[in-house]
Amino acid sequence: MFYLVYFAIIVLIPLWAQLKVKSTFARYSQVPSATYRTGADVAREILNANGLYNVGIEQGHGFLSDHYDPRTKTVRLSPENYHGHSLAAAAVAAHECGHAVQDSQGYAFLRFRHALVPVANIGSNFSWVLIMIGIFAHLSGMLLLGIIFMAAAVLFQLITLPVEFDASSRAMKQVVSLGLIRNDEAKKTRKVLNAAALTYVAAAAVAVLELLRLVLIYTGMTRNNDD
Known about the structure:
By secondary structure, the chain is mainly α. It is 75% helix and 5% strand. It has one domain. It has seven helices and three strands. Strand 2 and strand 3 form a beta hairpin. The two termini are 26 Å apart. Pfam families: Zn_peptidase_2.
């Protein structure tokens, strides 16, 4: 029964977060901003206001594929946000520019997250091999090694939270102070940013739950070995 509830939680939490993002984006992508600027225009104005003339803006591919690439110093916006005049497009564009500003200012959590990328990639790709071998072969040492690798990936998820929340906070300040949205549009814009943040919160929560489950399996295995 416990495991049924557990697996329901780790499946339902991310699913609910994704549905929340899509429904919120769909709603506010139909609401044009009063300034009627495209997402690309919003991004350019925010970047210029922060002296980031060297940061490019490109149209990306796919639905909600928006991101900032620190390697090429480029904000990539999905087609609907690059060309869109909606509050959703403005919010997403401003958020990605928030990451560009973080990068330019050497925001500590962003630098830490970048440093963790190689370790997190190894942890997420390799940890389950060690974990499965450890569980099925009853090798507690192998399981512990897998947990350590997985912990690095979980740490990456946790560090992502302050990075994303800070980028959204910067985004709200920018769109309001630069007059890219009206004051009465701030609440709706914030709803888009908060919905997007839910996906990162859900991912971190699921990762922590899974790590705790494995730690419990490890402690149970070592206790049995001692007996």
